[in-house]
Amino acid sequence: MAARAKQIAAHLNYPKGLLAGQVAIITGSGQGIGAEAARLFANEGAKVVIADVDSKKAHEVANKINESGGSALAVPGDITDARYINELVKKTAEFGAGKIHIIVNNAGYTWDGVIHKMTDKQWETILALHNTAPFRLVRAAAPYFRVKDGAPRNIINISSTSGINGNAGQANYALAKAGVTGLTKTIAKEWGPQYGVRANTIAFGFILTRLTGAKEAGQFIRLSDGETVALGIPQAQKAGAGAGAGTTQDVPLRRPGTATEAASAILAVTSPLMSYVTGQTIMVTGGKNM
């Protein structure tokens, strides 16, 4: 207890950043919330590994961080591929001189469909991406988290209001994001007592990303078999949704959140300023569903 108190006291002024000396993996960090989180983490002194299926974007984010005086490494690949996860952990440990302190399981997308029309492939793809992949990454990184070196360790799993309240047309995504909460709490209970690992879930509401943009913009994800999944919300659906998805009618702040605001929440929960918070689901929604 005394050692922990001294550690916290030593960080009170954070002259080298909130995450100084820490090594972080952020999945899905080639763009959007993940890229912003990587930038903010690097600004706070962390060495950041950019994990994204889009190699070009991953390297662009890493290069920008390095050019700005930060420290980043791009390790692109498909997070649903177990072989890639092992490579990601290995390269991160090498980059971090044998240390890994933070995992942000952020990678994800939606593949919507009403229950009676949803295919097995839609179902299994989304669960593999949002549940199996984060579990495999945490399991692979276990040797770097189940240690007693006095350093802070954090795992942040990204969820959604769909996982809290459900959402029509998103049975697969809602189940997957609800499952994230159970994984988070289990990590907190298993790795907290002996190793001091904190694990928290952050559930986002309406944040401006590819997933909430106009479907007509043509954004898509290409699966490993070549099939494409269109991203975004059709404008006609937004127009007729009233207080539904993709609108701000039921958001007390009456606006969507930005990727920077979402990433800032990840940084805040990971930082020593929230060192006594674990096993929680933090709602970042502008007040929606309060």
From TrEMBL:
Transmembrane segments: none annotated. Pfam families: adh_short. It catalyses: a (3R)-hydroxyacyl-[ACP] + NADP(+) = a 3-oxoacyl-[ACP] + NADPH + H(+). One of its GO terms (molecular function) is 3-oxoacyl-[acyl-carrier-protein] reductase (NADPH) activity. Keywords: NADP. InterPro entries: KR_dom, NAD(P)-bd_dom_sf, SDR, SDR_fam. Residues 22-194 form the Ketoreductase domain. It is an enzyme of class 1 (oxidoreductase). Signal peptide: none annotated. Its EC number is 1.1.1.100. Belongs to the short-chain dehydrogenases/reductases (SDR) family. This is 3-oxoacyl-[acyl-carrier-protein] reductase. It comes from Lineolata rhizophorae.
